[in-house]
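R.M. (postdoc): so does anyone remember the format we settled on? I'll just put the structure tokens first.
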């Protein structure tokens, strides 16, 4: 046991198995952020400007949080274009120029500023995205190319732990979601999906008419959602079951996109699965990669 622990520690601090994978994940995440911002561009003034639909929420005395929520102040909201433009510019820099960590810091600053301004309409997907985006700052796809030995060890260690920390954020989200579902009687008795269908905000009339009278389908979908969120945090770590869980996850979130219309949440969760799925061409021999 002690030997395996020593081997694992040595691997974490000296082997960088995630290099090309980090680069790929960064590009996909930045691509989504760019698309999302451009999609909302025509609504930006009413989302982020002085006359935004959202009431400023300056409850925190934390200096860092105040810096990351500048758009809640009228004098900054009047210049919301700089924040939207800054995010777009920093994303493009991150996609096409070197110094990925520096540009990711800028992307995070502008993204979290826009995020704080619109918290009332954000969902769990974007909450997860901004946390993983922060961890992406510490991921370096070229960590093993650092020339100085001690700095290389530190850089590799930080990068590896950042990848693992990002994975655990996904795990924590599913654990919390399933934990609270277990407290709800409608999830345990399999009727939760029935109530979802009657929520106009999160259902489509066509699906409501299709499923509302089929108690068998309603029970299956309710229990599938609960079972998947309970099992994913465990089974995703094993080689034999990882692919199955990721495929079920993609199906699960595509169905959420189609039936409930929460498209951004579904896309973000599928992107987050890239943290667990490493294409063969990106794999290196290491006990960290499975």
């Amino acid at each position: 046991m002690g030997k395996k622990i020593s081997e694992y520690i040595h691997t974490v601090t000296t082997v960088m198995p995630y290099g090309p994978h980090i680069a790929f994940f960064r590009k996909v995440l930045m691509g989504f952020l760019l698309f999302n911002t451009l999609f909302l561009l025509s609504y930006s003034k009413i989302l982020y400007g002085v006359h935004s639909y959202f009431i400023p929420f300056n409850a925190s005395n934390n200096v860092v949080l105040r810096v990351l929520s500048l758009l809640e102040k009228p004098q900054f909201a009047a210049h919301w274009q700089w924040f939207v433009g800054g995010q777009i510019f920093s994303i493009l820099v991150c996609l096409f120029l070197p110094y990925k960590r520096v540009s990711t810091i800028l992307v995070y600053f502008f993204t979290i500023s826009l995020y704080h301004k619109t918290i009332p309409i954000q969902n769990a997907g974007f909450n997860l995205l901004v946390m993983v985006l922060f961890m992406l700052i510490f991921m370096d796809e070229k960590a093993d190319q650092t020339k100085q030995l001690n700095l290389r060890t530190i850089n590799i260690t930080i990068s590896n732990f950042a990848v693992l920390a990002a994975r655990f954020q996904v795990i924590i989200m599913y654990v919390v979601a399933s934990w609270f579902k277990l407290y709800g009687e409608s999830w345990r008795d399999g009727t939760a999906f029935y109530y979802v269908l009657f929520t106009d905000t999160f259902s489509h009339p066509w699906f409501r008419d299709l499923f509302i009278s089929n108690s068998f389908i309603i029970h299956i979908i309710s229990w599938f959602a609960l079972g998947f969120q309970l099992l994913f945090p465990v089974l995703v770590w094993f080689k034999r079951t990882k692919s199955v869980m990721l495929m079920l996850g993609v199906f699960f979130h595509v169905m959420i996109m189609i039936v409930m219309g929460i498209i951004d949440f579904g896309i973000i969760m599928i992107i987050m699965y890239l943290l667990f799925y490493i294409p063969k061409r990106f794999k290196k021999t290491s006990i960290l990669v499975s």
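R.M.: ...and that's the designed sequence above, right after the tokens. Also worth knowing: Residues 83 and 133 are 17 Å apart (CA to CA). The chain has a mean pLDDT of 86.
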